[in-house]
Amino acid sequence: MTDLTFAPDQYTVHTLTRDGQTLTYRAFENIPYALHPDDAAFQRLSIYVPEAFYAGQSVHGYTLSTAPIFLPNTVGGYMPGPQEAPGVNFLGETNATFYALLHGYVVVSPGVRGRGMTNADGQNIGVAPAALCDLKAAVRFLRHNATTVPGDTEKIISNGTSAGGALSSLLASTGNHPDYAPYLAAMGAADERDDIFAASCYCPITNLDHADMAYEWEFHTLLEYHMVTFLPPRDGEKEPRKLNKDGLLTAHQQTLSAQLHDAFQPYLQSLPFWTGEPEAELRELIENTVLASAQKALDAGAPLADDPAVTAWLTVDGGQATRMDWDGYIRFRTRMKETPAFDALNGQSPENELFGTAHIPSQHFTAVYGDESRADAHIIRMMNPMTYHSDTHATLASHVRLRHGSMDRDTSLAISALLYLSFQKAGVDVNLEYPWGLPHAGDYDLDELFAWIDSLCA
Ligand code: DHB
C-alpha cells in the first residue's frame, strides 16, 4: 500500500522524436493518487518533465521549480480517460503532452474513471462524480507533495476536450467545495486543497441539465439530423473510424423540440447575467463571437469571401466580416443530434450512463421524464460548473480559456457562451472564441494555448 508520498528517485529517461522535433524527458509513471481507489491499476498518474531541467537548464524561462503544471485529461464521451505518455493521442496525432514538454511545462497525466467501468462486484465505478473526483485527487496528490514534485503546484493548468473540457471547467469551478469531500474521503485522496490556477476547455459538453433546451433553441428549425461518431482506430488502422447515422425527427420528437425550445426562455431569464433582454443578449454574444472568428480567419488570409456556402450567411465587405444571418449559419452547420440531444428517449446516451449509479446502468436527468426515474438532483447539480460560480465555498480558478469550434454541433454554442458569462459574472478572467471552421475537437491551437499560459505564468 502507498502513503501518497512522491518518490523523486523512481524515474526513467526517454528520448522521442516526432514531427522533426526531439524531446528528452524524465518519466515518473503509474503513481497511485488515492489510498482506496475503485480501480487500483487505473487510478494513477504519471509526471513528465523536460530532462533539461535536471541539467540546471531553463526552457522558455521555466525551471524545475517554476514550470507550470499542465494537467491534460484524455476523457472523451464521458468514457474512462487513461493516462497518456508523450507520443500520440487517440486519433494517432502527436499529443499535447509532447508539445507541452517541448515548451517547458511539467505534464501530469492522470487516469480518470468513466462510464462503463465496473469493479469485481459488477458495480459501476465511473458514474458521476467519479471522473471529477479523480482529477481532484490528482491535484491533491500534487499539493501533498508540493515541495518534492517538479513544477509549481500553484500553477496547475487543466486541459480537456468535450466531456474532458466539461471536467476541466468543473475542476476550475469547484475548488475545495464540500460537496465533493465525502467522495474524496472515501477514495482516500490526500487531505489538501484541490483548486487550480487555470483551465483550458475545448467544446465543453456541460450544463447537461439545460443542454437539451439549448440544443433545440439553436437547432429547432432543422428536422433532419446527421449524426457522426468517431471510433478510435483499431490495431493496424491509422485513421479513426467514422459512423454516420442520418434521419428525421419523429412527430413526437418535433413536439419535444418545440417544448424544449420554449423551456430555454425561462431558464435564460433565471440567470443573473443580463442587462437587457436575455435571448437577444445571448444571440448577440454568439453572433459577435462568430464574426470575430471569421475576422481572425480573414486576417490570416482565408478566402471566406470566395466561398458561396459561407457568403450565403456571412457578409464580408472589404475584408471585414460585418454581419451574419443566424438561420443561415445554423443551416450551414446542420443538426447532429436527435431530440432530446443528451437525455435520450431511450435512456442510452453517454450522459444517461454518466448519471447512472453503482447499481443502475443509466438514468434520465431532465424534467422531460418526471421525477421517479431521474438521477439524484444533487449529483446533477454537482456536474454543472455553473452551480458553483456564486458559491462562496468554492475556490474558482483565476483564468479560464474556452474554445468551441464554429462548426461544432455536438452541443449548442449557447452552452459555452453561458459558461463564459457565468465565469465572467464570478470575476474570473475568462475568454471565449469559436475557432473558424473547426468541428467538435480540441488541442488544435497549442501555440495559442501555450502563449496564453505563458502570459499568465511568465
Ligand atoms: C462527447 C461528445 C458528445 O456529443 C457527447 O454528448 C458527450 C461527450 C465527447 O466527445 O466527449
UniProtKB/TrEMBL annotation:
Source species: Alloscardovia macacae
A Pfam family that the UniProt record links to this protein: BD-FAE
Secretion signal span: none
Keyword ATP-binding attributed: no
GO molecular function: hydrolase activity
Protein's UniProt name: Alpha/beta hydrolase
InterPro entries named among the record's database cross-references: AB_hydrolase_fold, BD-FAE-like_dom, GDXG_lipolytic_enzyme, Tannase_B
NCBIfam families named in the record: tannase_B (NF041556)
